[in-house]
Structures are given as structure tokens and as C-alpha cells.
Amino acid sequence: MITAAVIYFMLNFLAFNPLKKTTDKISRAENLIDNKQYNQLSDVKFAKGRNEIGLVNGSINDLLGRIQSNEGKLANINQQLEIKVEERTAELQDTLKELKNSQLQLIRSEKMATLGQMVAGVAHEVNTPLSYVQNNLCLLYTSDAADDSLRVD
Prior knowledge:
Blueprint: H1 2-34, H2 52-150
Helix pairs in contact: 1-2
């Protein structure tokens, strides 16, 4: 009976308590990761040791350190990408403004060209009857002058 009690206390002290502490810390680290609180992972430290539980704890510490490091790198990369996106967005907005200005200038040029064609058409239409009248007046004038030179008083 005493032997069973000693074995129970030894198992409890050497195996069960360290396993319980490890699983509790793993749950805490899991919650931090789920909540994306990577900067707090360094607060979760697992007790290292020479036994199997200590070796596993050391590996978990290494993994948590890698997660925290990689998350920091990802945060930096995301920040750089956001800066690039903002720069490119500004460039695209400038290009869009230039394109709209060019479009307005093109529309104005087209309007002016159309107006010029219309004015030329109107001028032609007005000029044609005037030319007819002018030519006929010239003919009348020249025929009047010819009649005057033929007349003898």
C-alpha cells in the first residue's frame, strides 16, 4: 500500500503535473495564436528539462519563437505592400485625371472641328448665291458698257 502511494506521488510529481502544466500552456498559446496576439507568445515559456516532457517543452518554445518571428516578418511585408498599394493607387488616380483631361481636350477639338466644317458649309452656301449675283452683275455691267460704246449720239 505504501509502495502504491509512493508510485502515485512520484507519477503525479514527475509526469502528471508537468503534463498538466504543458497542456495548460499549450492551450494559452493556442488562444493567443487564435486571437492573433503573436507578440504575447514570448510570455508563454515552457519548462525545459532532460526528460521527454522537458524536450517536448523545448521544441514547443522553439516553435512559438518561430511563429512570433515569422509573424513579425509577415507584418513588415504587409506594411510594405500597403505602402506600395497606396503609391500605385495615387499613380492610377493621377493617370485617370490626365486621361480625363485628354478626353475633354479631344472632345473640345472635335467640337471645334465640327463647328469649323459647319461654318465652312454655311459660308459656301451663302457665297454661292452671292457669286451668282456678282457674276450676273459683271455681265450686266460689261454689256452696259458695250452698249454705251456702240451708241452714237
